[in-house]
Structure formats: structure tokens, C-alpha cells
Amino acid sequence: MIYQGKAIQVHALSDGNAELIFDREGQAINVLSTDTIKELGEAVKAIQAKSDIKGLLMSSAKEAFIVGADITEFHGIFGETEEFLTDMNLQVHELFNSIEDLPFPTVTAINGLALGGGCEMLLTTDFRVMADTAKIGLPETKLGIIPGWGGGVRLPRLIGADNAIEWIAGGTENRADVALKMGAADAVVSNDKLRDTALDLLTEAQAGNLDWQARREQKKAPLKLNPIESMMVFETAKGFVAGKAGPHYPAPVEAIKAIQKGATAKREKAQLVEAKTFAKMARTDVCFNLVGLFLNDQLVKKKAAAYEKQVNPVKKAAVLGAGIMGGGVAYQSASKGTPIMMKDINEEALQLGLKEANKLLGGQLKRKRITAAQMAETLGRIRPTLSYGDFKDVELTVEAVVENAKVKASVLAELEDQVADDAIIASNTSTISINSLAKNLKRPENFCGMHFFNPVHRMPLVEVIRGEKSSETAIAATVTYAKQMGKTPIVVNDCPGFLVNRILFPYFGGFIGLVEQGADFRRVDKVMEKFGWPMGPAYLLDVVGLDTAVHANEVMAEGFPDRMKREGKTVLNAMYDAGRLGQKNATGFYKYEEDRKGKPQKVNDETTDALIQPLVKANEELTDEQIIARMMVPLCLETVRCLEDNIVGTPAEADMALIYGIGFPPFRGGALRYIDAMGVQAFVDLADSLADLGPLYAVTDKLRAKAANNESFYS
């Protein structure tokens, strides 16, 4: 044993080589934490002290190689100064350089996922062998930073600047065959041959059959690009990536700039450029919020995993009610491997459901994401039926009939008589109380809500709604099924609108108020899209459907009359009464025309103004900041109320539900992190300044106390 630590071991091998093994004690994965980096420094010094080592093999004892740096440390470390962060990165560069400069050939055996710092680590060695199932990548830009430990220096010199930019700006995980083709890997083999192949490469290098010194010099020298080539590569890339990333995500373009600035320099100077750029990006609000998003996502996954341990996977499911929603649920279940029955009362609806599944699978086939055989296999897992004949062995049924309380109650009671006594029933309702639906059931403990967002195949969130009588088994089974479908389940308690819709409708209330005060809905849309929403409120209402919005608004008004009930006719009613349903009938706030691909594209409709004008009560001149405040304050306050009312368990779950459910701007971190970023007291002051607009803007006593105590939602 040359070195023994808690995360790293170095063994002397019988052929004169040494093996450095990453193996974090008591952990399922390897990460490059502060402690691990410290150990790596000690291990390298121990290797340097041995004069008889002929070569070094780096490997991992875990299923993955190294999944990256320890992101749980980021918020603490990134709070330091730019100078501190630059110096910290330069110390890691010095360590990685000492591996790259060892006086003998080196090789990495990549057995699994190698991302971020893990990928940068393996780039230090002369050769890389990948298992055919392994992936490598530099996803730092997804966290609002850039590779900081040499990824932006070594990767372009290995695979070319254009390829490296694509990997780094896109933050992609790249398969072994792609890495081999690009030159990031030297061999790809099955996992059982990985270690032997890596050792064979060392032997070949030691015998002089592979020029390991030349490999090393290639990574240390400037990029081989003439001025014209350099301009074409970098300027073209910056323009394309800036357009794709948008103004709120600067990291991809900053990564390109750092690569470009270091392209003409040798290793150390290029690394200094990278370290400084990393330090600048690590201090941004975007980075702070995206790192927070990652940590929140981990918490949500951890909670779901705890539920999964309580029950077995669902082997056979059913969806009641076909059509677009039922077809979407059936497709999602079948495409992820869980057989599902799709029942309706008429053949036409069943055919519509099958058509939806066929359309989604056909799209995947066209994009070559699946084969014709895989499409047929997936469709084979969907069994359409007009009867309950085979429902006795269905373990979980999703009720997805029309959003009408009486219809749902009748269908659920009928369904309960057709399934096994221990079968779980979940209602896909967006607003109707789970407690009220459970009243007529004989086994309410087996019932809960399972709210999918439309379109099912794209929206990652599923709200699992706990009723007063829902058992832990029912919740655990529904969470597990949602996970099987590839969704992110978040458990919430029952109330009108549950979590996401309860929060969304005060946002729409802010919009209705703005229109009544004379704001142009088109301008409001543009301001909120510039703020970061994927679409403005008017456009979103058109996509949701004005009929759906009016119905949901009535439910919310009945549930929370003190702040969500509005006297008289609203702009939503005006649209609905005029027969404008939004995209579904091509006319709402906007008109919709199909593009070349048959997708609806919004165009301006001047006749909308005439419908709105009778409802306008004033003609205020508002700044963009005032529009944002009037939209965001009600949404944020309702999120606070949901947390205080125990509708949702944690700030992390509330924020993730908004991001995954309605597209809250990810770079802002969620509603509660948005309040934290502003400062709780500053947010309270802002809300108080708008108090005359009505109860939607009223601050809760608990939030006022939190502000007085200088507290925040996140530590």
C-alpha cells in the first residue's frame, strides 16, 4: 500500500505500476469534495516519492467513476471573494498538473459516469479507456459556472475547439462511442475487460509503442488554430450559443470566451484565464439559484426514494378515460415499461387515446430515438377496453375523466366495485378536492390524487395529493408509479387547486388586475417573458384553455373567497363568453395559425381589445418593474401561504413544483428563493406598497415576523 485515505487508495501492482483507486468510505458514489482533493494531493506526493513506479492506472471502486465536485459545498465556497475562488482553483490546477507531469505514462479506466471535476480529472492522464456503458461530460454550465479544473483547457486540445465547445456549452453527457470518435477516449471495451485493457495500454506506452510524451505536450501547448480558423470557430459559436441559451444564462458564452482567450496560451496561462472566469461566474445570482435548484431536486428525489422503499413497483396499471389526457398517461406508462389498460365508455374515445400514443411514439420513431420494433412493443403494453373485465388484477388506476365533481364521484364509486380490495385509485384532477371525492368511497384509504400536467409526456411534475383518509401505502404506491413513469412526484396535502394551481391563480389574478388598470396584455406578456417565464400570462391562459381557466378560477374563488373572488365580469369571462377558448379553437387573447409543422403559432388579434375595453377601469402608466411586482407578489405570497398551511412540506418542494409544473424561471430558483434573493423584509415592504390593490397582496403575520427576525426560507 502506497497510500491509504478515506476516499483514495494507492496500491503497488506486481508489474511495477501503481493503481490510484477512488473509493469514498461509506458512500455510494465518488465526488471530489474538499477532503477528497486534499487526499488526492497527499496520494500524488506519495506516488512522487516512489522512484520505482513505471506507470499509473486511475480507477474507481464505485459503480460510477466520479460524478463531479461535491455540489453540497458550493453555496458555502462560492460565497467567498473572486480572489479566493481564483486561488482555490489554481491550487487544484497545480495538483492536476502534477498528475499530468508524472515521469511515466498514465491511464484512466472509466467504468461509469464521469462528470464535471471527475471528467477533468481523467483528462489529466495520457490515455483513457472507457467501458461501453460509461459516459463523460462537463455539465458545469447547467449550474451557471464553467469548468474550473482544466476542462476548458485540456478538452479543446484533445478533441478540437468546436467539439469541446459543443460538449461544454451544451453540458452534455457523452457516450463512450462518441468519446472514442472524438478522441476523448483511446479505447472502448466491455466493463469486464476494462482494467486489463488499461494495463495493456500502459505496457504499450512503456515499451515505446505509444508516444505518451507527445500526447502530454498536445494538452500543454496552445491550440493549433490560425487567426481565421479561430475567428470562425469562436465567433460563430458565441453567436449561436448566445441565441440558444438566452440572456439569463451567461455561463455557456463565458465558457467559450475563456476557451478563446486561453487558446493561444500554454497550459498555465490558459488555466489562469479559466480560473478567473470560473470565479466570476460562481459569484453570480444565476449560479447561486441553479445550484440551489440542484440541491432542491436532490431533496425531492430523496423523499420520493423513501416512499419507494415502502412498496413494490406497480406491475399493472389502468387509466380510466381515454382521449388526449388518458392517451398521454397510457403512453407515458407504456413507454417506461409498465403495462396499462385504457378504458372508456365509447370506442371513439379509445381510438383518440390510441391516436395520441401513436402520435407521440411516431414522433420518437421519426427522430430515430426508438426503432419500429420498440414502438410496436410499447403500443403492445397499452390495452384498450370498453369493459372492466380484467380490472381485478390492476394494482393502480388513474381516473382521468372530465373535470366535473359529480361525474368523477360517480365514476370513482363504480370503479371501486370493479377492482381488488387493496387496489389503489388515484384521481387526475387539477382542482377538485380529494377529500370531497373520497366521501362516497368504501375504501377512502386506498384513494389519493395524482395530478398530471399537460402535455403529460413533456411536463415532469406529478402532484400526489394526500386526502384526510389516504393511507401511507396509497401515497407510496402512487409516488412509486409516478417515478416508474419517469416523473418527479411531489406529495402535497388537499386544498382547492392543491399546490401549483392554487399558486398560479393569484398570478392570473395579478394579470386580470393589470388589464383592468389599462395595461396592454401584449406588453405584460413581453415583460414577463423577459423576466424569464417561458410564456406570458395571456399566452399561458390561451394554452391552458379559457374554458379550463374559467372553471378553475371559479373553484379557487369558492375555496379562497377572501382574496380570489372578484366581483363582476373579468377578462377571463369576457374571452369565454365570446367563445374564445385559446389554442383549442384557434382564438383567445391571440389568434393561432398552424406553421409548416402543424404547430399553432400565435399572431396578434386586434379584435381582442374591443372585448377587453369595457372592463378597463383606469389607464395607469406602469413601468416594467411595477408590472413584474403586480404579477409576482401574489404568486409568491400564495406560495408562502401554502408552506404555512402545510400544503407542501418544505421550501424546496414548493419551489421545485413551480419550476417543474408551470415553468417558473429556473435561474431565479423558485418563488421562495426569489423572496430570499430580494430579502424577506424588502419583499414585505414591496407587498405593503401594493396593499391597496386588494387581499391578494396582503402579507401574512408569519411572513412579517420572519422579516422582523431577519430570517429566510433557506439557510
UniProtKB/TrEMBL annotation:
It holds the Pfam family 3HCDH. It comes from the Bacteria. It is an enzyme of class 4 (lyase). Keywords: Fatty acid metabolism, Isomerase, Lipid degradation, Lipid metabolism, Lyase, Multifunctional enzyme, NAD, Oxidoreductase. Pathway: Lipid metabolism; fatty acid beta-oxidation. Residues 497-592 form the 3-hydroxyacyl-CoA dehydrogenase C-terminal domain. Its EC number is 4.2.1.17. Residues 316-495 form the 3-hydroxyacyl-CoA dehydrogenase NAD binding domain. InterPro entries: 3-OHacyl-CoA_DH_CS, 3-OHacyl-CoA_DH_NAD-bd, 3HC_DH_C, 6-PGluconate_DH-like_C_sf, ClpP/crotonase-like_dom_sf, Enoyl-CoA_hyd/isom_CS, Enoyl-CoA_hydra/iso, FA_oxidation_alpha_subunit. It catalyses: a (3S)-3-hydroxyacyl-CoA + NAD(+) = a 3-oxoacyl-CoA + NADH + H(+). In the central section; belongs to the 3-hydroxyacyl-CoA dehydrogenase family. PANTHER family: TRIFUNCTIONAL ENZYME SUBUNIT ALPHA (PTHR43612), TRIFUNCTIONAL ENZYME SUBUNIT ALPHA, MITOCHONDRIAL (PTHR43612:SF3). This is enoyl-CoA hydratase. It comes from Marinospirillum insulare.
